[in-house]
Amino acid sequence: MQTRVGIIMGSQSDWPTMREAAAILDELQVPYEARIVSAHRTPDRLWDYGKTAVERGLQVIIAGAGGAAHLPGMMASKTRVPVIGVPVQTKALSGVDSLYSILQMPKGYPVATMAIGAAGAANAGLMAAGILAINDPDLAQRLDAWREALSASIPEEPSDD
Ligand code: RP5
After folding, report:
1. Which of 20, 40, 58, 154 is surrounded by the fewest CB atoms within 10 Å?
2. d(Cα 62, Cα 34) in Å, to the nearest integer?
3. Average pLDDT over the chain, rounded to whole?
4. For ligand 1, is residue 65 a contact (CB within 6 Å)?
5. Average pLDDT rounded to a whole number, residues 59-76
6. Does the ipTM exceed 0.90?
7. Domains of the chain
8. What does pTM read for this prediction?
9. Is 151 marked as binding a ligand?
């Protein structure tokens, strides 16, 4: 199956967060690839990834980074493939640094920025699936079922257990 989603991250240390996005895509049977692409440590890799994203058939890129988190914004500057940004939680500033770095893009190069950390990464997977589902009725059905199951799992009353 054609890989339609690229999950990229600035470091191996981002993977425990970014694998939350991968887990959602696995559940929804969306083919993806996961790569370490650092804006600072491997700028040429970033450049090549962005340059070839369209021709390789990528339709959404999920980009996670922490600290001076330039990866999502730089990727958005290099490709028109929609970029979903995930601010990775940092030790020094709890990910607020990552959030602001990813969020405050200048006009013209949008990054759809998620919440800090694991919830943001999972939501990035869901957002990517939602975008692809626009033109994929089978995926739309799986996503609807996923959402219904989540809703059904929420009890009406709180428990002491
Ligand atoms: C960023 O620096 C990465 O995205 C990561 O979140 C952070 C720390 O990277 P490591 O020092 O753990 O490799 O580029």
Report:
1. 154
2. 9
3. 97
4. yes
5. 98
6. yes
7. 5-152 (3.40.50.1970)
8. 0.97
9. no
CA nearest ligand 1 atom 9, residue? 11
Predicted confidence at residue 131, as pLDDT, reads: 98
Q: Is 48 annotated as a binding residue?
A: no
Task: Output the DSSP codes for the chain.
Answer: ----EEEEESSGGGHHHHHHHHHHHHHTT--EEEEE--TTT-HHHHHHHHHHTTTTT--EEEEEE-SS--HHHHHHHH-SS-EEEEEPP-TTTTTHHHHHHHH-PPTTS--EE--SSHHHHHHHHHHHHHHHHTT-HHHHHHHHHHHHHHHHTS-SS----
Strand order in the sheet with 32-36: 32-36, 5-9, 60-65, 83-87, 112-113
